[in-house]
Structures are given as structure tokens and as C-alpha cells.
Amino acid sequence: MIRTYSPAVFVATLGLVVALSGCQSAPAQLEVENAWAKAAESGMTAVFADISNPGGEDITMVGGTTDVAQMVELHEVADGVMQQKEGGIVVPANSTISLMPGADHIMIMGLNGPLLAGETITVTIELDNGDTLEVTADVRDYQGANEEYHESGEMDMEMDMEHDGEMHQNGTE
């Protein structure tokens, strides 16, 4: 027995298949705004930005690369000490985080040359889901975050965050 269906049933079925195929969620993508890097003659510097996750699942930034330096690490400042952030930096679902001096940031180490105010750099951030995020940052002069680095990679740094959000070194401006 051969069944025939009306065109209306065929169109309705096709519409349901198309609608259901749209239910598969694409991997969440992070969005970057206000990205900037501190100008530096040599050594190390950092990138700061606002990073949003409009998706429904947390995304963790776990590493990175750039052509302006030998190494990229994700850092935090905890109890006045800057250190690599174990496990990466989490961007919670439906949230925005701010990478900023005195807090979580992207550390760029082993600069290949000076980064001068007015230049633009790109850092590729690796995500825990295997995707990458391109961060394009304007290089700016910035008087805060004047850390002193030792050859071992350790640094002397005491930081305060004043209520106005400006970072002060050793209690001075």
C-alpha cells in the first residue's frame, strides 16, 4: 500500500525538522571589549579587557600565544601577590569579567621588542573547549603596575586597589 501525504503535511514536517536542527547549540563564544596592553620597553607586560560570555555555560581561558612575546600566561593578584592563575580564568555563563591591573590579567612575557603606545597587538587565547579567542589590544602608556621582575621570573610587588579602581604601588600614587 502506498501512502500519499498532502503538501501541507510535508511542509509542516519539514518545518519541524528545520526548527529542531536549530536546537543544537553552537559552541559559546566570548566577546572582548576595551582591550589594552601596557606599553613596555622590554621584559613583560599585561593585557586587560572586559570579556563577556553570552552563552549558557561557563568558559575557561587556559592559555595563549602572541607573536610579540615568547610566552603568554593567565595571572591573578591574590593577597597582593601576582601569580599564574591555576586552572585558568573562568568567564561565567551570561556574565562579563574585567581583566585589570591588580586583578586577573593576561601576562605577556619575554617581549620580542618594545611595545610602544599607539601600537596594536593581538593575543590568541586558548579556551578549555578547544576554541580560541583573538584579543586585539591597543598599547597604552600606563603609570600603574610598575612591578619589578627578577631574572627567575619572580617579582617584587605590593599592590593596593583604592576604592576608585586605580592601582597604587606600595601605598603611593
Keywords:
mainly beta; ten-stranded mixed beta sheet; 173 residues; two-stranded antiparallel ribbon; 47% strand; disordered C terminus
Q: What does it look like?
A:
By secondary structure, this protein is mainly β. The protein has a single domain, classed as Immunoglobulin-like (Sandwich). It has one helix spanning 7-21, and strands at 31-38, 44-53, 59-66, 69-78, 81-84, 89-91, 95-99, 105-111, 120-127, 132-140, 148-149, 155-156, 159-161, 167-169. Strands 1, 2, 3, 4, 5, 6, 7, 8, 9 and 10 form a 10-stranded mixed β-sheet that branches. The protein has a two-stranded antiparallel sheet with strand order 11-12. A hairpin with a 5-residue loop joins strand 11 (148-149) and strand 12 (155-156). The termini are far apart.
Q: What best-fitting shape do the alpha-carbon axes yield? A: globular
CATH topology name:
Immunoglobulin-like
> How many separate domains?
1
Classified by CATH, the class is: Mainly Beta
